[in-house]
Each structure stands twice: as structure tokens, then as C-alpha cells.
Amino acid sequence: MLKVTSNPQLPYMTRLFGAREIAVGAVTLAAPESARTSMVGMGMAVDGADAIAGFAAARSGAVSKPVGIVLTGAALAAVAAGASTLPDRS
Q1: Among 15, 25, 26, 88, which has the minimal tally of Cβ within 10 Å of its Cβ?
Q2: Is the dihedral of CA 85, 86, 87, 90 positive or negative?
Q3: Comparing 5 with 50, which gets the higher pLDDT?
Q4: Mind listing the pLDDT tens digit for each residue in 27-82?
């Protein structure tokens, strides 16, 4: 489990991830329109890496399986959210 009482670094790590997501989002919004698709793709790649990390953490026992599912699911939801903003290429 991810418990603040047994893992005092958890709030710090949460802020790191939050700051990274805010920075990626801000840069994406500030980018010229022609670069936004690439920026969204970069954000999706970062979120995809987070999904892999969540899965690996659950598989190795670093976190419980339910926590791993939540971590992986949240990251995959972020990938899906990014994908939903990409232009239709059909």
C-alpha cells in the first residue's frame, strides 16, 4: 500500500509527478498549434511509461496489486485522454 505514515516520501513524489504533469500541459498549451500534436504525443509517452512503472511495481510486489491497478489504470486513462485530443487521421 501507499501509506503516508509508512512512506514519508510519498507527498514529495506526488508533488514531483504533479509538477511534471502541469509543466507538460502548460508547454503543450503554449506551443504553436503546429507543434501541439507532437506535444500531446510526448505527454502520452510519459503517461505510458508511468503505466508500465505501475504495472512493474505491482508485479514486483513494491506496491499491492490493488494499488498497482489504480496506478496503472490512472496512467492509461491519461494516455486515453491524450489520444482523444489527437486529430482524426482518416
Answers
A1: 88
A2: negative
A3: 50
A4: 999 999 999 999 999 999 999 999 999 999 999 998 889 989 999 999 999 999 99
In the numeric block, the cell 491497478 is attached to 69
Matching residue, cell 486513462: 77
What are the distances in angstroms from CA 38 to CA 35, 44, 61?
5, 10, 35
Sequence letter at residue 45: A
Which helix (H) or strand (E) segment holds residue 30: the answer is helix 10-30
Provide the residue count of the chain: 90
**Long-range pairs, 65-70, Cβ under 8 A, ≥24:** 67/1, 67/2
| Cα–Cα dist 12/25, whole Å | 20
C-beta of residue 72 within 8 angstroms of C-beta of residue 55: yes
C-alpha cell at 35: 507543434
